[in-house]
TrEMBL record:
Keyword tags: Lyase, Magnesium, Metal-binding, Thiamine pyrophosphate
This protein's name: 2-hydroxyacyl-CoA lyase
Residues in Thiamine pyrophosphate enzyme N-terminal TPP-binding domain copies: 15-128
Source organism (scientific name): Penstemon davidsonii
Family the entry assigns: Belongs to the TPP enzyme family.
């Protein structure tokens, strides 16, 4: 039983310490969050046990960091929040993890159990609040239940299709105490009773592998499509072997870019419309047939295309009803397919009509884009600074920087122009098209890959969601360069037609407008970071060169012509 009064602190530990001990035993190395009543002590105890705690200004950004950290490391990102509104703010990150299928655990303090329903401080039924976004939720109603609850939420975050889970810790439980020897016993028992079946990968069916290989072998115009699920599975080597041995062109989703280099001769990104419109068999690995892939339906796809869908989730395959579904880990399935083909090899060859058509179309589209990129347009459009940024990033070499891309026009143009050459080096708005992820993702990337420079290319609207976190960059001295495309607002300032400018508040700024010429670069300078204002190619090149070399917290404020952009949302591909 938990002790409240009879033992001195030297003989016992409280709930805060027990949670921290469990997190440490579970292998947690980083935590993100905003502290306050009742979880400040929990954060301090975690730090004392060797867990690095990254403290944010806002739970939303901390949650986005936790979700991205889970994706980049394959270990659940941990978000710690206070009760009530803190938990609600944390739902941004938890929902982002759920939709993107990234492992994350939200841990929130909650109000006193004995005061439920009486209007306690920040009282909320948090289990109910997180339900739409949590794969599994647990409430530690007593200190003795803490170890089992902690290990359960971590294991469930990783089980099957990864996602977000929730741990609720009432204030009274955090204050409860238990003898140190009893705490060790509770942890050992919980560790020994963990359900290892939760995190076991499904066995790949040999018969389905045979069918997949037969479909690919007989295809006239095969295509391999892969997404961030394949990136999460660390499937790059298996993908490379399959592509090199079969000569099949490939198409990554935006966050699948870099698993195989964008510069690979079989990359179909610059011929996307042709590739998906004409392929007759598509092997789709770790990518969902959702809006990002036009639901796998005409007119973007051929009505006769046969999909081979590889996903860790049986439910996802049943939802999409492909020609062939294979439930399994992306890496395992690809390795098995390659092994099957290796026993009876086939290869399209460079002169195959399908391969030639993809290559020629991609070459033509790249050449057209380069004609736009080669021009130095001042005041800046989106193309000129994006080309300069692309060249600067490529100039870093390996390990390549992690690119964080956020915004409307900024992200759309960047997806076509910026080049990914290494796996898991692109983070963007993702499946949900979430704005506000930028600074949180930057911090997650700096924590997950400390050997890499992190470069954010953001619209001014996207930056505004989490701009205060530049102080967090400075406080932890993270190697992050934030490049803000400043065009004066959402899509670019006031885009209203004359007939829309009417009514009693017609003289107000447009709903899409921000303060013209906003000095975003001075924000980071207020905290001791480095800021640059760039409006010409030479100014931008100089700022990039200096900041990339320094690897210190930096904001580069790039002045963009407010009329250069356009309203955007869904993926638009004209190639």
């Amino acid at each position: 039983m938990a002790e409240s009064e009879n033992k001195t602190p030297s003989q016992t530990i409280d709930g805060n310490t027990l949670i921290a001990m469990c997190l440490s035993r579970a292998g947690v190395e980083k935590m993100f969050g905003v502290v306050g009543i009742p979880v400040t002590s929990l954060a301090n105890r975690a730090v004392a046990l060797g867990i690095r705690f990254i403290s944010f200004h806002n739970e939303q950004s901390a949650g986005y960091a936790a979700s991205a950290y889970g994706y980049l490391t394959r270990r659940p990102g941990i978000l710690l929040t206070v009760s009530g509104p803190g938990c609600v703010h944390g739902l941004a990150g938890l929902s982002n993890a759920a939709v993107n299928a990234w492992p994350m655990v939200l841990i929130s303090g909650s109000s006193e159990q004995g005061l439920t329903g009486r209007g306690d401080f920040q009282e909320l039924d948090q289990i109910a609040a997180v339900k739409p976004f949590s794969k599994f939720s647990a409430k530690a109603t007593d200190i003795n239940k803490i170890p089992t609850c902690v290990f359960d939420v971590i294991d469930w975050a990783l089980a099957g299709r990864p996602g977000g889970t929730y741990l609720d810790i009432p204030s009274d439980v955090l204050r409860q105490r238990v003898e140190e020897s009893e705490a060790e016993k509770l942890i050992t028992e919980a560790l020994n009773s963990r359900n290892n079946d939760l995190i076991e990968k499904p066995k790949v069916s040999n018969s389905e592998i045979h069918k997949a290989v037969d479909l690919l072998r007989k295809a006239q115009r095969p295509l391999i499509v892969f997404g961030k699920g394949a990136a999460y599975a660390r499937a790059e080597n298996a993908l490379s072997k399959l592509v090199e041995s079969t000569g099949i062109p490939f198409l990554p989703t935006p966050m699948g870019k870099g698993l195989l280099s964008d510069t690979h001769e079989l990359a179909a990104t610059a011929a996307r419309s042709l590739a998906i419109g004409k392929c007759d068999v598509a092997l789709v690995v770790g990518a969902r047939l959702n809006w990002l892939l036009h639901f796998g339906e005409p007119p973007k796809w051929s009505k006769d295309v046969k999909f081979i869908l590889v996903d860790i989730s049986k439910e996802e395959i049943e939802l999409r009803n492909p020609c062939l579904g294979i439930v399994g880990d992306a890496k395992d399935v690809l390795e098995t397919i390659h092994k099957e083909i290796k026993d009876d090899p086939f290869c399209l060859g460079k002169s195959h009509p399908w391969v030639e058509s993809i290559k020629n179309k991609a070459k033509d589209n790249v050449a057209k884009m380069e004609l736009q990129l080669v021009k130095d347009v001042v005041p800046f459009n989106f193309m000129t600074p994006m080309r300069i940024i692309r060249d600067a990033i490529l100039g870093v070499g390996s390990p390549a920087p992690v690119l964080v891309s956020e915004g409307a026009n900024t992200m759309d143009v960047g997806r076509s122009v910026l080049v990914q050459t290494e796996p898991r080096t692109r983070l963007d708005a993702g499946t949900w098209g979430t704005m506000g992820v930028g600074l949180g993702y930057c911090i997650a990337a700096a924590m997950a890959a400390p050997d890499r420079l992190v470069v954010a290319v953001e619209g001014d609207s996207g930056f505004g969601f989490s701009g205060m976190e530049v102080e967090t960059l400075v406080r932890y001295q993270l190697p992050v360069v934030v490049i803000v495309f400043n065009n004066g607002g959402v899509y670019g300032g006031d885009r209203r037609n004359p007939e829309e400018i009417t009514g009693p508040y017609k003289d107000d700024p447009a709903p899409t407008s921000f303060v013209p010429g906003a000095a975003y670069h001075t924000l980071v300078e207020a905290f001791g970071g480095k800021g640059y204002l760039a409006g010409t190619p030479d100014e931008l090149k100089s700022a990039l060169s200096e900041s990339f070399s320094a690897r210190k917290p930096t904001v580069i404020n790039v002045t963009i012509d407010p009329y250069a952009g356009a309203e955007s949302g869904r993926l638009q591909h004209k190639n």
